[in-house]
Amino acid sequence: MTSIIRALWVGFAGLSILWLAADPGFFSATGIFQWRHFLVQYSGVLAMGCMSIAMILSLRPRWPERWFGGLDKMYRLHKWLGIGALVVSISHWFFVNGVKWAVGWGFLTKPERGPRAPIENPLEAFFRQLRNPAEFVGEWTFYAVALLIAVALIKIIPYRQFLRLHRVLPVAYLVLVFHSVVLAEFYYWLTPLGMVLAIMMAAGTYAAIISLMGRIGAERCVQGTIADLHSFPGVKVLRTTIDMGPGWPGHKAGQFAFATSNPKEGAHPYTIASSWDADAPQITFFTKALGDHTSRLEQTLKSGLPITIEGPYGCFTFDDDQPVQIWIGAGVGITPFIAKMQHLAKDGAAATKTIHLFHSTAEVDDAALQNLDEEARAANIQLHVLISARDGYLTGDRIRQQVPEWPEASFWFCGPAGFGAALRTDFANRGVPVRKRFHQELFSMR
User: What is the model's pLDDT at position 446?
Assistant: First the structure.
C-alpha cells in the first residue's frame, strides 16, 4: 500500500514541479483572470497525467508488478488515478466555466484585451484554428468520462454493465488527448514538461488502441478446457479444474489469473487454488457465488468447455525470511493457501518454517472442511478453523493466544478488505512492522 501512495504523490509532485518550471509566470500572476488561466493549464496537466498512467496500467504490464507488490496493488493505483482524474477534471471544468458564469451574471468584468500578436509558427497557427472544436469535444467528453468513472465506483451497478461502459473510456481518452495537445500552451512542448506529457500521452494512446482492439493481455493467454467441476453447496463454492494447453509458463502458489469462459462477460480474476506440475498441466479455481456472474457459473460451465486463461499475475507468493508464518483465509480467501499447501506437500518444504493457518468462515460445508484438513496435514501446517456461529469471530487476540511466536511471524491475509485492515491495525499497535510483514491481497476490478 505504501508504494501505491508514494507513486500517486510522486506523480502529482513531479508534474507540478515540471509545470512550475515551464510556466514561472504563475508566481507573478495578479487578478482572477490571470489566476484562472494558470489554473486551467495546471489542472489540465494533472488530469491528463492521471488518465495517461491509468491507461498504461490498464494493459496489466508485468514490469512494475514487483515494485508495487502485485497487479492487485496496481489496480488499486489505477482506481485512485481514476478518482484523482475525476476530481482534477471537475476543478478544470470549473476554472474554465466559473469565471464565464461570473461575467455573465455581472459579478465580474472581463478586462479589455488588446490585439493579439501575429502567430509566426505555422504549427501553432494550425493549433489555434482547432481551439473551438477542441474546447467543444473536450467539454462533452468530460461529462461522459465523469459519468463512466462514477459508474465504475458505484458497485451496485452489475459488473457486466460496468465492463461494457468501461470499454468506452479509451475512446474518451483519445478525444481528450486531442483536446490537450491543441489547448495546452504551445511553448510547453519545448520544455521538459512537454516532453514528459508527450511520452505519457503517446504511451496512453498506445494503451487505448490495444484496449479497443481487445488485445489486453493477449500475449499471456493460453487456451484450456474444463476437465472437472465440483460444487460445495454449504459454502456456495464451485471448484473448476482446467486442462491447460501449451504455453502456460507455470505459476507460484498464491498467484491469480484471468479466466474468460464467455467473451460477452469478459475476463474475471480468480486466485489459482492449485500448485503447478508441468507433468500434469492443470490449474484449479474456487469461485464463490457472490454476484450475477459467479452465481451462474454452476449452470453455464460444463466439462469440455473451452476457456481462456491469462496470467499468471500477483506477488502474494509467501516469500519471506521469517521463521513463522501466520496465514489468514477468510471465506473463499482460503484459496491461495490451498495452492501453497499443495506445493509444500509435494516439495516437503514446510519443515523450514512453522506455519499456522486460520480459516474463518460463516458458512460450513463438511466436505470442503475435510479437504482442507487433509491438505493441511499433508503440508505439516497447523490448521485453526473458526466457524463464526460456533466459535465467534477471529481477532488479533485469538491469533496471539494460539501462536505464541507471533512477534517473529509474517502475516499473509486473503479475505474481506475491512477485516484485513482491522487485523493489520491490531498487530501494528502491538509493534509488528506491518509494512514489511503484513501481506494482503487487494484485488478488485473496480
Answer: 61
For residue 3, the model assigns a pLDDT of: 80
pTM for the structure as a whole = 0.89
Q: Rounded distance, CA 278 to CA 250, Å?
A: 7
Q: Who contacts 109 (Cβ-Cβ below 8 Å, separation ≥6)?
A: 103
For residue 329, give the 3-state DSSP assignment: strand
Q: What is the DSSP string of 275-289?
A: ---TTS-EEEEEEE-
Determine the longest span between alpha carbons in the chain, in angstroms.
84
Tell me the residue type at 81: L
Which structural domain, as residue segments, surrounds residue 223?
A: 218-313
Minimal CA–CA distance to 200: which of 55, 90, 88?
55
Residue 42, domain member (yes or no): yes
Burial-class residue 435 by CB neighbours within 10 Å (0-12, 13-18, 19+). Answer: exposed
Q: Among candidates 184, 229, 157, 202, which has minimal Cα distance to 40? A: 184
Which pLDDT belongs to residue 120?
83
- Gap between the Cα atoms of 11 and 48, Å rounded: 12
Same domain, yes or no: 153 and 286: no
For the stretch 317-336, pLDDT in tens is 999 999 999 999 998 899 99
What residues in the chain have per-residue pLDDT under 50? none
Same domain? 96 vs 153: yes
The Cα 387–Cα 392 span in angstroms is 7
- What does residue 111 show for φ and ψ, rounded to 5 degrees? -70, 150
C-alpha cell at 226: 474444463
What are the tens digits of pLDDT across the range 107-118?
888 877 767 777
- Tally of domains within the chain: 3
Q: How many CA atoms lie within 13 A of 33 on its CB side?
A: 10
- From 278, 313, 348, give the residue that closes a domain: 313
Clarify whether residues 255 and 131 are in a common domain. Answer: no
CB atoms within 10 A of CB 168: 14
Return d(Cα 159, Cα 165) in angstroms, integer.
Answer: 10
